[in-house]
Amino acid sequence: MSPHPAPTAPRPPLRVALAGIGVVGGGVVRLLEANRDLIARRAGRAIEIVALSARDRHKDRGIDLSAYRWEDDMAALVAADDVDVVVEMIGGADGPALTLARQTLGAGKALVTANKAMIAHHGLDLARLAESTDTPLKYEAAVAGGIPVIKAIREGASANEIARVYGILNGTCNYILTLMEREGAGFAEALAAAQAEGYAEADPTFDVDGIDAAHKLSILASLCFGTKLDIGAVTANGIRNIIAADIREAEALGHRVRLIGMAERDEAGLSQHVQPCLVPADHPLAYVPGALNAVVAEGNFVGRLFFEGAGAGAGPTASAIVADIIDIARDEYGPAFAMPVDALDQAPVADAGARVGKHYVRLIVEDRIGVLAEIATAMRDADVSIESFIQRGNGTEGGVVIALVTHEGPARAIHAALAILAASDHVIGTPMHMPILAL
Ligand SMILES: NC(=O)c1ccc[n+]([C@@H]2O[C@H](COP(=O)([O-])OP(=O)(O)OC[C@H]3O[C@@H](n4cnc5c(N)ncnc54)[C@H](O)[C@@H]3O)[C@@H](O)[C@H]2O)c1
Ligand SMILES: N[C@@H](CCO)C(=O)O
Ligand code: NA
């Protein structure tokens, strides 16, 4: 086929059905209506919404949907002869989203999804199904929202071996951390504000416990390293235990707290971790505020790539979904994970305890004689060397805050020291630790 098809031969419209009309689905309707003509010119054909389906037809969504056919039963979207593409914006790894995805690909229709939980858990099976029916499976909106990072890695960086990918992958957590840092907001208040903006998952524990970022990281890792998706191998720690004192002490140490997902592949195997980290204040990731996301990918020829943009919200997520639809309209698609599923490797999981770095440790302790000696002894017994140490008298929960930074050492030594301290009668609550990013 000519790479420059004659503009005088318009193709029939691409007919799209939308399943799930919430924050993201509403954004897709608005975008397709607002940019209809431009999109048609770019795609080389019109893109038409022909049917919608969601749980509640009569909910007020603030948009006029009366022009579109409504199906109460989602399966009808797949069965309809006038639907070419099904866009899944329901959410959830299993349940109706997965049923719809399987039905769609099984019927040889294109699937676009924003659902990182489903792709992280079932992406390989869905990709196999898409291969068997030679159908597009696209999920740009699932990772880092509006940032076209899937496209950039699948296509723009596809010549490179990538050994490390990391970044800020959850808009809700970044929004909460930024509000805590800039306005002194409390955790619960900041989470409520993120939910009101439409950033959070239906169950926000997925956001704050790092699970949503883990879903996204596992997808990026597969794409970057050519490995089979392995969500079970990702460790996830969220931001629930971060208190105002951590933000303050991080700042005093010249750092900011960010939830970082990082995946690396080397001779030791594949490591995939989501955890709050101290990021040096002059690192580009420290400048990423609010619901923005950022992804860093290091390619062996291109060097360091840095992508930043809105990671959540109706408009940015719709932008990613509609870009996928336009690719389908242009017949531009390939294997979902950049190579056929059978060509992906199975990498061994690297030993997380062996990861070497400096750590920030924060404890709240009773203000009494011998407590500092107890901390120093625990560190010595676990073979952790202390680089700097701060005690603040303005305590929380009836204690004083101790913040310290360790010299470089393996994560397993920090865990051992914290286990000793957690058992102490003089330590209040759970000790907190965060690696210090040094890249
Ligand atoms: N909100 C964001 O910023 C964002 C960004 C990227 C990806 N996503 C993903 O997009 C998807 C949708 O997110 P959202 O924020 O729009 O959620 P939402 O809760 O606002 O909307 C979900 C929609 O799905 C429908 N739905 C839910 N369960 C259903 C069921 N059992 N049967 C039929 N319909 C059902 C609801 O009626 C609603 O219309 C999720 O996979 C989410 O992870 C969201
Ligand atoms: N809840 C997700 C939506 C985007 O995937 C976030 O806050 O990043
Ligand atoms: Na994206």
Automatic annotation (TrEMBL):
Residues at the active site: K216
Organism name: Sphingopyxis witflariensis
Keyword line: Amino-acid biosynthesis, Methionine biosynthesis, NADP, Oxidoreductase, Threonine biosynthesis
Binding site for L-homoserine: E201
GO terms for MF: homoserine dehydrogenase activity; NADP binding
Positions contributing to NADP(+) binding: A19, G20, I21, G22, V23, V24, G25, G26
InterPro entries named in the record: ACT-like_dom_sf, ACT_dom, Asp/hSer_DH_NAD-bd, HDH, HDH_cat, HDH_CS, NAD(P)-bd_dom_sf
Protein name per its UniProtKB record: Homoserine dehydrogenase
E.C. numbers: 1.1.1.3
Enzyme class at the top of the EC tree: oxidoreductase
